[in-house]
Amino acid sequence: MNKKTIEVVAAIIEKNDKYFIAQRPNRGELALKWEFPGGKVEPNESREDALIREIREEFKSDIKIKRFIETVYHEYQTFHIVLHCYLCELVSGDMELIEHVNKLWVRNKDLDSYDLAKADLLILPIE
To answer: Beta strand 62-75 with 102-107: parallel, antiparallel or unpaired?
Structure first.
């Protein structure tokens, strides 16, 4: 079976020495996994623009991208993921839940104690 490759961006949002994670809805291969929020890059859209748009759509909040962290690659059962990660800060909004079912601000050293999606685990520890 040829698995499709999905290119996505993730916001590693830092505030008061904690990082924002959100719990995915209860559907699909990554049901109820925790993740750093983000989403797919649309055609003719930069990764940075995609990330800002996704956070605005999914959390009604605005972020500022501080710097690129890294790109991670992971093979799930049904697809491959290419995940571009950016350190961000919250500019406005309260990270309102639109699609996700829960949210938390977590210290870096505690992130690996949550059931994060495997690709997101590859980012840890955040530097």
So the answer is: unpaired
Residue type, 87: L
State how far the Cα of 47 lies from the Cα of 40, in Å rounded to an integer. Answer: 9
Instruction: Round to whole Å and give the CA distance between 121 and 28.
Output: 18
Coil vs helix vs strand at 87: strand
- Lookup: tokens for 21: 């994670």
Mean pLDDT of 69-73: 97
Contact 36, 105 (CB under 8 A): no
Closest CA to 104 of 91, 115, 88: 115
CB-CB neighbours of 6 under 10 Å: 14
Q: Record the pTM.
A: 0.93
- Are 51 and 86 within 8 A, CB to CB? yes
The b/e string for 111-126 (b: 16+ C-beta within 10 A; e otherwise) is: beeeebbebbbbbeee
1 — pLDDT class (breaks 50, 70, 90): low
